[in-house]
């Protein structure tokens, strides 16, 4: 960095060629720089304090603005579609400029040191952020693996693995939350203190004081849900930006097929061939579709078949629900017997997993009756699988709660028994000691009669469910994919027909089935995590092993899809599903917190009427009084109902704003088309096709109607034809005022010349994509300013 | 400028990080792979010829590989050769964190086969032929091709001048949910 003393001469020399070469100095900016240089030159002989005074206010402001602009440019330089050479030059210049003049702007004498310090800290912070980002990206596991899968199978299969990795991260955080905040303090505080006797050991007297660890426990469990909710919603919001709006799928089918169907991640020639074939097929199909439109043949038969199919599927759903209910009630009988084998113990879970395995293919075969378009059929299929899983899970829960109620009744008996037992014990003790003053030593908790702990049994059931689910999944992969590939590969030599091309052949990776499985598994974890905290840990292990196992299975036994079918917006769809499952699994848990009494003899919440009382008691006893009254007011229905109403109104409002934008888009499109038609007509000297326009023009005198330069307001996602308009003689575009209201999403760089000549001959001012460029040659904003 | 050096100097690395969307590891990996392309030569040139670039596994199966090389090349003779900086430009535009504008800008230039700044019927036809592969039985018939191009122009040509310019292209692309995730190349 040059010292300010020696700089002015050098600067002036450097300035001239640099200004000629530099791409993005505004005229105003340049002027500021010139005046600045002059004043710098003047100030050379003056002292520091006089230097500041020699800069006038206007120059100072302009200089500040220029510095800010340069800083913004530096931050955004990578988003400019220029060549690297040019970016480097511009970056260097901008950095020099900023460095040089930032000090000069540093404020009056005393503040200068502080300003310099601030700048340095800022730079350090930015560097730290960058390093942290680098570190974070390098920490992401399994990048190589996923890249391999991507290059073989394309991005849709890889998206499953990316989803899996994301879930793994989520579960890891939940697990560490749970572990760090609940389990470790427990272990640390140790059994001798036994934070609450009931936690480690059953039964003792009533708790006298509120223990914070219980509250913490409760909060952590609730916090798990809260955190999951936040993360899922945030990811959805991020995906929403990328995905763009969600109006009609059919808006740009052909263009999208053309421009976006190739998957650039494919690195494998075989996959590429498949892709070619599928692209061709999809082109041909859509051409045919377009021509065919409505084929109305025999709509009644089709309707009947569809009703029949739906009826059969509902029967299957009902049947599976009943089966589960039956199995759960059978398991209660089993629980009373003692000679049960492994199968009987896990019967319910096995049945549930098998149902989840067998029914979806059944749905698919039945769905062939319906003859929907493949994308719609896929949606129906996913919806049905969803209903199946949900139905199964909720039936399971209801059956479980039946059991819980039974246990609660049992508990009442045991409670009475225990009280009676205690009385007896004390009576015996005093009888033997003849000393009514001495207090009996407390009963060793292990001796006391324990009641059934319904929370434990519920937790246990969930654990068993998860474990059997894992087993079934792995077995299916092993048998369905690996064994199948094995047989096809080796038996092909001695079989009558070609196994590889014909019937079994190699399997394709079932993306939606796997993703749904993952999502539902997560739902079960969320439900069970409240009762069995270790479940999250089990899930972490499961996801980890799943990653390796499925990566191996996919590379070894699957072939790329023949028909590559992007259920578009699929990423957000799966996130949406996850969100729904989160809510649905929250419901039973909240219900139990609010209404079922915790079991008397175990768990951290015992002794209270409801688990939620933990929070209520804290509020009442431990926190200052006004918070209690505050909560009382907030929980008042009189406040809640208006709150809900407000939210409904907000949703309605946002909806109508969205619709208004859509209408505005259509209007603008129409205007553009009209403008183009007008120009065409003008060129051909025909009468205007727009009657209103013609009337207006008849009234106005014929003068050159140069349109005023449009303002810079940015209406979102509208592009402008300004680039085209400049090629027309001034006045031709004048009659239409649309250019006033509209500004570009990105300037059309090609109004003047072919694109590849961009680096060298493009002089200053002809920049693509620079939104700040006020068209010096009248480009980009459509205002011919010759 | 670092293309043939065996080590990338630190300030250059920092500069490249500023100027591209790539992270430090990605730049280093790119440097390594780029040097591997010319490792057999005694005097490796700064500019790598196109056929060596096309031998990269990531580009080998891509139907647009030649266009990609031409678009990102800064050579005066238009032979599609790339320096290391061109290579970085390429990777940056195709990276995960590149913005939609950058990607659509470069996609437009890649699809513009005749380099005239717009996608006209000829460009679109060549585009379709690239996508459907080289064998005869996968090509579309003339009739289908005509129909396809008409449909595409109907959808995306807003000002009805028979060509798709950059703004129209970007408008179409910005609505597509698949574009960003499929327009990616990772080393």
From TrEMBL, chain A:
InterPro entries: TMC (IPR038900), TMC_dom (IPR012496). Residues 673-682, 714-723 have a biased composition (Basic and acidic residues). It is found in: Membrane. Residues 19-30 have a biased composition (Basic residues). Residues 1-14 have a biased composition (Acidic residues). It is a multi-pass membrane protein. Residues 453-568 form the TMC domain. GO terms for cellular component: plasma membrane. Keywords: Membrane, Transmembrane, Transmembrane helix. Residues 1-62, 673-786 are annotated as: Disordered. It comes from the Eukaryota. Pfam families: TMC (PF07810). The chain crosses the membrane at residues 172-194, 214-233, 307-328, 381-401, 524-544, 573-594, 630-654. GO terms for molecular function: mechanosensitive monoatomic ion channel activity. Belongs to the TMC family. This is Transmembrane channel-like protein.
TrEMBL record, chain B:
It comes from the Eukaryota. SUPFAM superfamilies: EF-hand (SSF47473). One of its GO terms (molecular function) is calcium ion binding. It holds the Pfam family EF-hand_7. InterPro entries: CIBP, EF-hand-dom_pair, EF_Hand_1_Ca_BS, EF_hand_dom. Keywords: Calcium, Magnesium, Metal-binding, Repeat. The keyword Calcium applies. Gene3D superfamilies: EF-hand. Residues 99-134, 144-179 form the EF-hand domain. PROSITE patterns: EF_HAND_1 (PS00018), EF_HAND_2 (PS50222). This is EF-hand domain-containing protein. It comes from Alosa alosa (allis shad).
């Amino acid at each position: 960095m040059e010292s300010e003393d020696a700089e002015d001469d050098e600067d002036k020399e450097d300035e001239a060629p640099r200004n000629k070469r530099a791409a993005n100095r505004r005229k105003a900016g340049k002027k500021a720089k010139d005046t600045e240089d002059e004043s710098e030159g003047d100030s050379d002989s003056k002292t520091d304090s006089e230097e500041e005074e020699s800069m006038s206010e206007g120059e100072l402001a302009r200089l500040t603005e220029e510095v800010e602009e340069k800083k913004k440019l530096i931050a955004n330089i990578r988003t400019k579609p220029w060549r690297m050479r040019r970016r480097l030059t511009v970056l260097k210049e901008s950095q020099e400029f900023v460095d040089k003049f930032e000090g000069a702007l540093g404020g009056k004498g005393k503040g200068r040191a502080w300003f310099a310090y601030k700048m340095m800290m800022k730079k350090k912070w930015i560097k730290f952020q960058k390093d942290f980002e680098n570190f974070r990206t390098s920490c992401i596991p399994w990048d190589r693996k996923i890249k391999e899968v991507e290059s073989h199978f394309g991005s849709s299969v890889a998206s499953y693995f990316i989803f899996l990795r994301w879930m793994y991260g989520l579960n890891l955080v939940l697990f560490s939350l749970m572990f760090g905040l609940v389990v470790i303090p427990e272990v640390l505080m140790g059994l001798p203190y036994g934070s609450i006797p009931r936690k480690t050991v059953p039964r003792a007297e009533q708790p006298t004081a509120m223990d914070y660890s219980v509250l913490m426990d409760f909060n952590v469990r609730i916090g798990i849900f809260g955190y999951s909710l936040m993360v899922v919603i945030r990811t959805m919001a991020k995906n929403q930006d990328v995905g763009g709006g969600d109006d009609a799928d059919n808006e740009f089918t052909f263009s999208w097929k053309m421009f976006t169907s190739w998957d650039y991640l494919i690195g494998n020639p075989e996959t590429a061939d498949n892709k070619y074939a599928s692209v061709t097929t999809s082109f041909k199909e859509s051409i045919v579709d377009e021509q065919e439109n409505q084929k109305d043949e025999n709509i009644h038969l089709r309707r009947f078949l569809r009703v029949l199919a739906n009826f059969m599927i509902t029967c299957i759903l009902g049947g599976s629900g009943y089966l589960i209910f039956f199995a759960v009630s059978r398991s209660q009988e089993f629980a009373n017997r003692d000679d049960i084998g492994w199968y009987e113990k896990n019967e319910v879970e096995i049945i549930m997993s098998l149902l989840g395995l067998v029914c979806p293919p059944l749905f698919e075969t039945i769905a062939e009756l319906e003859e929907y378009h493949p994308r719609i059929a896929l949606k129906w299929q996913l919806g049905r699988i969803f209903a199946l899983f949900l139905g199964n899970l909720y039936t399971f829960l209801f059956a479980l709660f039946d059991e819980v109620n039974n246990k609660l009744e049992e508990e009442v008996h045991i409670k009475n028994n225990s009280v009676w037992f205690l009385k007896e014990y004390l009576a015996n003790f005093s009888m033997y000691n003849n000393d009514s003053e001495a207090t009996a030593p407390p009963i060793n908790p292990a001796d006391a009669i324990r009641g059934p702990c319904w929370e434990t049994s519920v937790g246990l059931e969930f654990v068993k469910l998860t474990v059997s689910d894992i087993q079934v999944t792995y077995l299916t992969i092993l048998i369905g994919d690996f064994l199948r590939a094995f047989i096809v590969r080796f038996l092909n030599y001695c079989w009558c027909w070609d196994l590889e091309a014909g019937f079994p052949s190699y399997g394709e990776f079932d993306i939606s089935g796997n993703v749904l499985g993952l999502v539902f598994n997560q739902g079960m974890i969320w439900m069970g995590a409240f009762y069995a905290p270790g479940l999250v840990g089990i899930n972490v292990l499961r996801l980890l092993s799943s990653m390796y196992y499925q990566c191996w299975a996919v590379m070894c036994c699957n072939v790329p899809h023949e028909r590559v079918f992007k259920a578009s917006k699929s990423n957000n769809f799966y996130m949406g599903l996850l969100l729904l499952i989160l809510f649905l699994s929250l419901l039973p848990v909240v219900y139990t917190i609010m209404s079922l009494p915790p079991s008397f003899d175990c768990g951290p919440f015992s002794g209270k009427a409801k688990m939620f009382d933990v929070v209520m008691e804290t509020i009442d006893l431990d926190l200052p009084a006004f918070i209690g009254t505050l909560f009382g007011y907030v929980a008042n229905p009189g406040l809640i109902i208006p709150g809900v109403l407000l939210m409904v109104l907000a949703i309605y409002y946002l909806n109508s704003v969205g619709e208004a934008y859509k209408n505005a888009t259509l209007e603008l499109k129409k205007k553009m088309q009209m403008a183009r038609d007008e120009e065409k007509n003008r060129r051909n000297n025909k009468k205007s096709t727009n009657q209103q326009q013609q009337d207006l023009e008849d009234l106005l005198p014929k003068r050159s109607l140069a349109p005023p330069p449009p303002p810079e307001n940015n209406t979102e996602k509208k592009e402008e034809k300004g680039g085209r308009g400049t090629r027309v003689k001034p006045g031709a575009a004048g009659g239409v005022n649309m250019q006033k209201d509209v500004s570009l999403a990105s300037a059309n760089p090609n109004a003047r010349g072919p694109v590849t000549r961009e680096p060298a001959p493009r002089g200053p001012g002809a920049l693509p994509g620079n939104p700040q460029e006020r068209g010096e040659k009248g480009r980009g904003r459509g205002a011919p300013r010759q | 400028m670092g293309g043939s050096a065996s080590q990338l100097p630190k300030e250059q690395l920092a500069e490249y990080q500023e100027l591209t969307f790539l992270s430090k590891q990605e730049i280093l990996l790119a440097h390594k792979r780029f040097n591997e392309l010319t490792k057999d030569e005694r005097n490796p040139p700064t500019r790598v010829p196109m056929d060596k670039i096309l031998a990269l596994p990531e580009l080998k199966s891509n139907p647009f590989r030649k266009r990609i090389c031409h678009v990102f090349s800064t050579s005066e003779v238009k032979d599609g050769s790339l320096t290391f900086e061109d290579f970085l430009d390429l990777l940056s535009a195709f990276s995960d964190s590149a913005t939609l504008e950058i990607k659509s800008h470069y996609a437009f230039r890649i699809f513009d086969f005749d380099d005239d700044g717009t996608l006209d019927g000829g460009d679109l036809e060549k585009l379709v032929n690239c996508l459907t592969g080289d064998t005869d039985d996968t090509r579309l018939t003339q009739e289908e091709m005509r129909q396809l191009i008409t449909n595409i122009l109907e959808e995306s040509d807003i000002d009805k001048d028979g060509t798709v310019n950059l703004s129209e292209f970007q408008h179409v692309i910005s609505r597509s949910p698949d574009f960003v995730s499929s327009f990616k190349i990772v080393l």
